[in-house]
TrEMBL record, chains A, B:
Belongs to the PRA-CH family. In the C-terminal section; belongs to the PRA-PH family. Homodimer. Residues 30-103 form the Phosphoribosyl-AMP cyclohydrolase domain. It comes from Pseudoponticoccus marisrubri. This is Phosphoribosyl-AMP cyclohydrolase.
């Protein structure tokens, strides 16, 4: 069946969450949002393109930082309201320069930092 | 620093998305939503507890199906607006009986089914 981005289920703001996972290692790197057009651009260009809610603009991941995400595979969940992008991540995915945005663990009631910023 | 669920960033409906990832294999199993109280219950009980938007009630994963998620680790992202739960998943995570909800790949413009329902 041909995939049509318009058949996804978007929230009231026209957005669908997209989880980025690193190919090979399986690390969950980040979660951000896409519009139908961002989904289209991601598939057309092979570069993961989110929608920036703060800037209200397309956000081609890594366009300024160089920390790009090349799309390996895009997956749709059973309810069609969440996406999983398998990506080849260049360097850190997080704006704090850490590999993943999920670097804080809740352990025994405390917040514990699991990873440090990457050194270029 | 002590973790306080009230310091997370919730959307207009008081919800935060939570990604469930299988320990060991790293499979991304599903994404669902939590309220602050669902986060608290998850940490207190060690059983991943979402908020069902359709039922407007707590959703202790696997309570009726037996396909429970035991919490191994809970992680908070850099913006504090998304959670990652590392879980020990009993059987399938998806209501379609598949291991993961992300069983559909968009490949060359078509939707391709990557996995079949699990057999008990």
């Amino acid at each position: 069946m041909a995939f049509d981005p318009d058949t996804l289920v978007y929230d009231a703001n026209g957005l669908v969450p997209c989880i980025a996972q690193a190919e090979g290692t399986g690390e969950v790197l980040m979660m951000a949002w896409m519009t139908a057009d961002a989904v289209r651009k991601t598939l057309e260009t092979g570069r993961v393109t989110y929608w920036s809610r703060s800037r209200q603009a397309f956000w081609i991941k890594g366009e300024t930082s160089g920390h790009t995400q090349a799309l390996i595979d895009l997956r749709v969940d059973c309810d069609r309201d969440c996406l999983l992008a398998i990506v080849r991540q260049e360097g850190p995915a997080c704006h704090t320069n850490r590999r993943s945005c999920f670097y804080t663990s809740v352990t025994n009631g405390d917040e514990v930092e699991l990873m440090k910023p990457m050194v270029d």
